[in-house]
């Protein structure tokens, strides 16, 4: 990228509330910078900032950090932000060669957009997807490593697929011409706009690498070693780690459990399935084995399996208007997280009671709640994920329905996006749903599952 040297760039960056001038000081503490525990997405080589700024505007419940090594380029982004208040955005002027000095286990997704291709072999190690950079990225991620890359450069794309696969990443989503994808909520970068005008194909890939808990702890030890670079301090780090693990075993167990929840999202909720065996007005879905419908009305279904009840609410109006999710993570809960997968989003909120969890899962314009025995959490969440991920809306029927309703306003449909916050919600839930008898409706609509569609 060629830009004029902006003479007063230091002054401009210093005076911007978006720019963090001493980013090394926040290693491991970026959630304090944002004052919340929302996910953090990082873009390296953000250039003039269109992508990161528009993302921050579109997704207020995600924190965004843009990193750019060229101070003059960064001033363009700062100027775009004049008069705009985005508490979920921070910018850093820094060379990503030392990225591991800035973040430790706190990034949820990394964006690499139109990175410099460095076509000569002798410059390969400067590519942001070279094995050297990929090793540095290992320490950044909070749970799993997720890298999203866009480029118009085929050689860089193929090189990056190879280096990432060699480091244990797998393709989650890939496209050789992103502009042709209408299922992808794409926010364009400045370079992307230029390349699209030239009719260059835009390559896109989302790569995922699952990292298990113990491996993460090993990374922590490595970081200690590299960072302090002294055997004496290394020993001290070891002692602190062992003491922490002994005293906080509860926390470690919770971490392992929550990792298994994330696996359910990735293997069930985020996998698009064509299964269906239950037909409702305006949508169909797949009712997992062992789950039956015990009650239904216009919008709601009450379901039951051997151990728990489920309450399903499908919001066809929100689907029709493509309403955005406005959920905020609740730190006090056992588990609370925004869910994002392509153009679908939602949230999971789990509150802990003495021997049960109250689970709210919202995704794909529907919400399902359950009051689950503790040892049944994973099974219940798998059932819930099956139901929500297989909901398939019938545009024609919904169009007609919304048209006929006439007076239905968008606001009416927003309630599924509010998480239950009342402390007595378990009791209310029990009162309302906990007393259902054995199946009272035989659902004639249920037909056998068509496995060939999966
Ligand atoms: C080709 S531009 C793309 C800019 C922007 N992502 C876009 O798509 O419009 C690449 C940008 O990455 C920045 N960059 C390259 N290497 C970097 C590094 N090691 N650390 C931080 N930024 C880097 C460059 O300064 C440049 O602004």
Q: Could you characterize what this model shows?
A:
- By secondary structure, the protein is α+β, with helices and mostly antiparallel strands.
- Helix content is 33%, strand content 21%.
- It has 14 helices and 17 strands.
- The strands form three sheets. The protein has a seven-stranded mixed sheet with strand order 3-2-1-4-5-7-6, sandwiched between helices.
- The longest helix is centred in the middle third of the chain and has 21 residues, at 249-269.
- Bound molecules: S-adenosylmethionine.
- The site of S-adenosylmethionine has 21 residues, from strand 2 and helix 7.
**Remind me, CATH topology of the largest domain?**
Rossmann fold
Structural category: alpha+beta
Largest sheet: 7 strands, mixed
Strand content: 15-25%
Integer-rounded radius of gyration: 24 Å
User: What is the terminal separation in angstroms?
Assistant: 46 Å
What is the domain tally?
Answer: 3
Named at the architecture level, the CATH assignment of the largest domain is: 3-Layer(aba) Sandwich
- Provide the low-confidence segments as ranges: 249-256, 406-427, 434-454
Tally of strands: 17
The dominant shape is: globular
Helix content: 25-40%
SS field, number of helical segments: 14
The unique ligands bound to this protein are: S-adenosylmethionine
Q: Supply the CATH class of the largest domain.
A: Alpha Beta
CATH superfamily of the largest domain, please?
Vaccinia Virus protein VP39
């Amino acid at each position: 990228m060629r830009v004029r040297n902006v003479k007063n760039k230091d002054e401009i960056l210093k005076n911007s509330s978006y720019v963090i001038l001493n980013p090394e000081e926040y290693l491991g503490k970026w959630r304090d910078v944002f004052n919340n525990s929302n996910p953090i997405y990082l873009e390296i080589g953000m250039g003039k900032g269109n992508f990161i700024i528009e993302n921050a505007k579109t997704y207020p419940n995600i924190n965004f950090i843009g990193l750019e090594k060229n101070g003059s380029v960064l001033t363009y982004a700062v100027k775009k932000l004049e008069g705009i208040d985005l508490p979920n955005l921070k910018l850093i002027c820094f060379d990503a060669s030392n990225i591991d000095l800035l973040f430790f286990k706190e990034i949820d997704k990394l964006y690499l957009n139109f990175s410099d291709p460095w076509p000569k072999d002798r410059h390969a190690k400067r590519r942001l997807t070279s094995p050297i950079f990929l090793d540095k990225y290992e320490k950044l991620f909070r749970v799993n490593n997720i890298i999203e890359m866009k480029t118009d450069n085929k050689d860089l794309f193929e090189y990056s697929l190879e280096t990432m696969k060699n480091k244990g990443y797998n393709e989650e989503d890939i496209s050789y011409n992103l502009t042709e994808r209408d299922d992808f909520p794409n926010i364009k970068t400045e370079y992307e706009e230029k390349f699209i005008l030239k009719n260059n194909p835009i390559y896109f890939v989302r790569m995922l690498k699952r990292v298990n808990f113990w491996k993460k702890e090993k990374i922590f030890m490595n970081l200690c070693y590299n960072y302090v670079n002294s055997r004496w301090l290394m020993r001290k780090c070891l002692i602190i780690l062992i003491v922490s693990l002994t005293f906080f075993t509860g926390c470690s167990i919770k971490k392992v459990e929550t990792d298994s929840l994330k696996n359910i999202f990735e293997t069930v909720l985020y996998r698009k399935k064509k299964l269906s065996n239950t037909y409702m007005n305006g949508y169909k879905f797949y009712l997992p084995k062992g789950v039956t419908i015990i009650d239904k009305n216009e919008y709601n279904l009450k379901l039951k399996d051997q151990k728990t009840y489920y309450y399903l609410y499908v919001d066809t109006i929100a689907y029709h208007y493509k309403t955005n999710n406005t959920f905020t993570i609740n730190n006090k809960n056992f588990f609370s997280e925004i869910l994002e997968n392509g153009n679908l989003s939602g949230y999971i909120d789990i509150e802990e009671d003495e021997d049960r969890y109250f689970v709210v899962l919202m995704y794909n314009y529907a919400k399902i709640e359950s009051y689950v025995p503790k040892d049944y959490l994973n099974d219940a969440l798998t059932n819930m994920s099956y139901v929500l991920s297989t909901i398939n809306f019938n545009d024609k029927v919904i169009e007609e329905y919304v048209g006929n309703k006439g007076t239905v306003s968008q606001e009416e449909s927003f309630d599924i996006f509010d998480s239950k916050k009342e402390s007595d919600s378990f009791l209310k839930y029990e009162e309302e749903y906990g007393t259902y008898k054995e199946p009272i409706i035989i659902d004639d609509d249920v037909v056998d599952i068509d496995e060939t569609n999966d």
